[in-house]
Amino acid sequence: MAIQASGRATFNKVIDGVSSTFSLVPTYGNQIMSKDPVSYTPNFETNNNIITPTLKILGIGDTSNQIKGACTWSVVCGGKTLTNGTDYTVETSGSYRLKIIKNLPSSALVTCVYKWTHPTTGQTIDFTASLPIPVAENAGTMIMALITPKSTDRFQTKAGGDQWLDFEGAMIRGGSEDTTNVTYKWQVFDPSVGNFLEFDSKGQIVVPSGKTTALPTGTVLAKFGENNKTISISDKAVINVGSIKLTVRDTDSQSSTSGKEAVAVKGLIDDTDPIDLELSQPKGPNVVAGGGNPMRFDISQGNYEWTDKDYIGKKLGFYRLTAAGAKDSTFVPSASDFGSNNEWAVANNEVSRSYTTSVTGTEANRTVQIKYSHLIANAVQTTFQGFLDY
């Protein structure tokens, strides 16, 4: 199914209700402590537990992470409030994350408060999210599961490109990893089903009978390493905020935990900036009889402006709107109006063009000439709707 981003040369401001999701996603969801000798897995002093705040607001026209400034954090461990700068640090720019830099003596509760301001009304709202970090003692006669990201747990795709994140699973016994006779099973959370879904041998999700899913079916969403110990997960497996689940099983018949299983869950964030399509009018919106003015397609994601090559494999197009805002079925211009070689195709009351490695999205290739004859005859204003398909 084509993915589409759209924009108009003219638009109205609409103030409406909003809904929100505020979550805290850690690098490590728990810590395992062994007492003899004392050791921690993972060791937060060498592998900091980075906690990322993510605020998604629906209804404001901006689906990117709304954390734009400093948060107020607190970390309570065993009834004691830990110290900023000693036990943890807080970023004052970028993603405004918290980093736990010391090992935890007991389970901790991390709380984050962020004051958000509505971009239109100016109303401020305090959002609060809490995240428990369990610390479990491993005496050696029990097993635990652990998921470690190879690089990051945040998807940030550009120009519709694919992105894969790598994770490694482990079965922990005592203070070290046990790799003898261990099986690893991975699952992904589907918000529409409300449960974790399994993967088949091809890395495609298995949807329970009678259920529908918001995740793409028939598409490879996961790739596995040897013995399924590692997983590469596709950005298409996450809708804003998601998670993967690892189940490890001890299959060593000589082990005291033979046949036992342990589970770990890892949160994922899709922090991709939304695609913004602007129909620019370099010489203004006024067109005189017999004349014309250029209209250019410009695409950006956050602070990133698409390069000429980013348009490869994409299609840009536009159509005329009636005074009522509907697609105008009487708009049938000649393809020669937009280039002597019919670079832009006209079909279904739309004007469109596709881009290839030999025809990239240069500024000239993204610009059309809007002529006086393209405007609605009995109206002063004419609005064109642009679209991006890929």
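The record above closes out task 2.4. Task 2.5 opens with a second protein, given below.
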Amino acid sequence: MIPGAFRGRAAVSRTGALILAGWLLAAWILAACAPGVRPAPPVPPVPEPAPRPAEPVPAPASPPAPRPYAIDGRWYQPLASSHGYVEQGLASWYGKQFHGRPTASGEPYDMYAVSAAHKTLPLGTWVRVQNLENGRRMDLRINDRGPFVEGRIIDLSYGAARDLGVVEPGTARVEVVALGRRSVEGRAGQPPVYTPMDYDHGNFTFQVGAFKDPANAYRLRDRLAATYRNVHVTAYFHADHGQLYGVRLGRATTLSEADRFKTELRAAGFEGAFTIAE
């Protein structure tokens, strides 16, 4: 063998090996960079949704406050409570002209039955009426509104007026005591049971005006605030007149105190002022 020839072949072999290695490296790089389907990256686990808090159960709606009503332009506010209510004044009676017509409670008026009308006591309230001129007394139920005559506190049905001795004179001075709602009818030899309601004590204020336009109500409020305490505007819905804005003022904690302040308001020019039980 010729040594020079061997060295030449060895050099060629090394060169070929280097070229082959270069091609393999290039092919590997190209293969790594070639587009292809890659495995999707791992999806992080979706956390379980937090449990929703239970929906609050709405509290039962409170019974609506008695709505004020108007007769001949004058407003009246029925009371909402009735424990220990006592009032003295004139009683009158109404009869044939209204017989069979619906009362404020929706019942037809029966002039021969025992019932009565009152301006502010809650409908359905039982009262004890005593004629202070002859001593007669009886229990009866308020199922109508009235009397709308200044100075009179209760309007008796013809049947009640007959038994109390009021028919002939037409009016009589009486005392009215609120008994409440009859919860148990009287049995033989036993009186009925009543659930009392507090009419004489509570939080009372006084309405001196009502407006459709709230701007008028607030103007009156601002004018009265310099003279009276607790002057405020209260919005309420009236069945006949829609949304109204009442101007109210003053505060009393007993019905007798409220009556005195109402008298003062009327003397000051607020002839339509009436008491509100808050």
